[in-house]
Write a structure and sequence with these properties.
Keywords: Cell membrane, Membrane, NAD, Oxidoreductase, Quinone, Translocase, Transmembrane, Transmembrane helix, Transport. One of its GO terms (cellular component) is plasma membrane. It is found in: Cell membrane; Membrane. Strands 1-2 form a two-stranded antiparallel ribbon. Strand 1 and strand 2 form a beta hairpin. By secondary structure, the chain is mainly alpha-helical. It is globular, with a radius of gyration of 22 Å. It is 72% helix and 1% strand. The longest helix is centred in the middle third of the chain and has 32 residues.
Length: 506
């Protein structure tokens, strides 16, 4: 590629990525050159400012028509813009958690790395959202994965953090290998790694042997993506990693990493498999025949996530199984693929981000004040700190899908989506309702501790102020959860600014 061709590309389409890359590079250099005696806490605000600038940059690109550079390996389309906004805003909240994170030991000497590793992982997710090529997509996936492994074990002298990192890297490496093996089948059959070209070639292949191999590739990649989103039966790593990792990392894995998993899954399915033939005469599309497997995965994930959560006594493990269940709800939308699937998943990820990050903000505060993440440490919270107890209740009720919250609207859209396909999927709809009812037990169990149990003796969560950054997170998350629950049209009208967002699925 000559310099003239290189300069002809519209590099402005990558401006948010360049901003994040520049900020994390500067953070890395400052951290290396700054004397050890100086605190790295100020670097957190620099990272937060960088993400804010990237959000402004992305918003300025919304009117831009679909743009591809580097021979369509990077695409800035409405899909990428909308989901990148979720990723950037979610990372802004996570970085605010990280700035206020003050464990007893094992983080201060790596505080600088803490911030720029988050940005490195964010950069990987943004590249995934704009990938138009399997190679770009895989590079983004690995950038996210390797950074996540390090973040999970960043408290080097903390036994649970070490255990979390070890389990995460072993399971993650196996899942990545399976995903890459599936991708290699697609490349071998089509001779290209470009998603658009690959999709066009797959549409024309009616040979049953080729279709069988396309199916093998699909199921291999589905296994890898299922690990990333923590869906059953590939969820084994999630409870231990969520419990052992630092709380901001847990929030990141449950929101940003999970969102990235669904983004990459949607990219692959929409570009490659929606129009691919499912039989030798092309009478049925691939997804029309094989969506049942995703439906089974969704059903199993909802059941296992909610049923096992009933037995948890640690709130981080309970939220891990809750996260698994929410992955099942989102898989319902993919299993019933329709014209509005992308919009439904986008709205649900926004709602999930607000209620989940908000819940982990309170978990982080309570852990610092009581020294425990057990559910019984929330006993009597309403008497010692009524505002904190009510705030946590709002997030829990949203996760449960109670009317008046963003979580309810998100679940309602998914439920309606099960009837928007032909034939309607009554089994998935019934499973969604049934498992949601089961989830009331463990969400209300936490509320019962806060409102109806005597105070926890090991600490007083009312003692000491809440960090300013945590207050910002809680304020944003509470307001978003309530406003999008009462007036969801605000979010959907904003999504309408992204031209032709739902034109990926017809």
């Amino acid at each position: 590629m000559d310099i003239e061709t290189l300069l002809s590309f519209n590099w402005g389409a990558m401006m948010p990525e360049f901003i994040i890359l520049g900020v994390l590079t500067v953070l890395c250099i400052i951290d290396l050159l700054m004397p050890a005696k100086y605190s790295r806490r100020s670097l957190g605000w620099f990272a937060i400012a960088g993400v804010l600038v990237a959000i402004v940059s992305l918003l300025s690109l919304i009117p831009l028509e679909t743009t591809s550079i580097l021979y369509d390996t990077f695409r800035l389309d409405s899909f990428a813009k909308a989901f990148k906004l979720v990723l950037l805003f979610g990372m802004l909240l996570v970085l605010l958690l990280a700035e206020s994170y003050r464990p007893g030991e094992g983080i201060e000497e790596t505080r600088g790395e803490f911030y720029y590793l988050f940005l490195t992982a964010l950069l990987g997710t943004m590249v995934m959202a704009s990938s138009g090529d399997l190679i770009t997509l895989f590079v983004g996936l690995e950038l996210l994965s390797v950074s996540s492994y390090i973040l999970a074990g960043i408290r080097k002298r903390h036994l649970q953090s070490n255990e979390a990192a070890m389990k995460y890297v072993i399971n993650g490496s196996i899942a990545t290998a399976i995903t890459l093996f599936g991708m290699s089948y697609l490349y071998g059959l089509t001779g290209t790694t470009n998603l658009t070209e690959m999709g066009s070639m797959m549409e024309q292949m009616l040979n049953s042997q080729f279709q069988y191999l396309f199916g093998v590739a699909f199921f291999m990649m589905l296994v890898g993506f299922s690990f990333k989103i923590a869906s059953a039966p590939f969820h084994m790593w999630a409870p231990d990693v969520y419990q052992g990792a630092p709380t901001p990392v847990t929030a990141f894995l449950s929101v940003i990493s999970k969102a990235a998993g669904f983004i990459i899954m949607l990219r692959i399915i929409i570009f490659l498999y929606v129009e691919a033939p499912g039989d030798a005469v092309g009478a049925f599309d691939f997804m029309e025949i094989n969506h049942v497997y995703i439906a089974v995965l969704a059903g199993v994930t909802m059941v296992i996530g909610n049923v096992v959560a009933l037995r948890q006594s640690n709130i981080k493990r309970m939220l891990a199984y809750s996260s698994i269940a929410h992955a099942g709800y989102l898989l319902v939308s993919i299993a019933t693929l329709g014209y509005f699937t992308s919009s439904i998943i986008w709205f649900y990820l926004v709602a999930y981000m607000l209620m989940n990050v908000g819940a982990f903000a309170i978990v982080q505060h309570m852990q610092e004040k009581t020294g425990s993440t057990e559910i019984d440490s929330y006993a009597g919270l309403y008497k010692s700190n009524p505002l904190l107890a009510v705030t946590m209740s709002i997030f829990l009720l949203s996760m449960a899908g109670i009317p008046g919250t963003a979580g309810f609207i998100g679940k309602m859209y998914i439920f309606i989506g099960t009837f928007s396909v032909n034939p309607s999927n009554y089994v998935l709809a019934a499973t969604l309702i049934g498992t949601t009812v089961i989830s009331y037990v463990y969400y209300i169990g936490v509320m019962k501790q806060m409102f109806f149990r005597p105070a926890f003796e090991q600490g007083n969560p009312n003692r000491g102020r809440i960090a300013p950054s945590l207050l910002i997170v809680l304020s944003i998350c509470v307001l978003g959860t309530i406003i999008f629950g009462i007036i969801p049209g605000i979010a959907l009208d904003f999504l309408g600014e992204f031209k032709q967002f739902d034109d990926f699925v017809e």
